[in-house]
Every structure is written in C-alpha cells, then in structure tokens.
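B., you asked whether I could sanity-check this one before it goes into the benchmark set. Here's the sequence:
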Amino acid sequence: MAHVGGWWPRTNTPEIAKLARDAVSVPGVTVGTPIVAVSPAGVVDGTPVAGAWTAADLLAAWP
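And here's what the prediction gave me:
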C-alpha cells in the first residue's frame, strides 16, 4: 500500500536538502522512502528529489 505524507518546517522556510537529511525523523519514513517536492515555482535543476511537480502539474492531473 502506498502512502503520501507532508512535511513543512514550523519556520515556513522549506529546505529540501535539510528534509532529505532529517526525513528519517518523520514517522513512517525510512532511508528507502523517495522524497518528492511540490512547489508553485518548481525546483532548480539538481535538487535531490525523486520527483518534483508544480501546483499546475497537480491540477492538470486531477480528473
């Protein structure tokens, strides 16, 4: 069964590199859990994520 969870720091300053390092402290996450990003502006090339989507991508995928 697949699960999707969210993460956002209390400071409201998302740091993808920090998430990758600290993700294992999120309940249910293991070192094999892929990290993906959803960002209104997208992500810069080279960001260490398994996938990245914009809000427009998500809306376009909605049936």
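One thing to flag: The first strand starts at residue 36 and ends at 38. Otherwise nothing jumped out at me.
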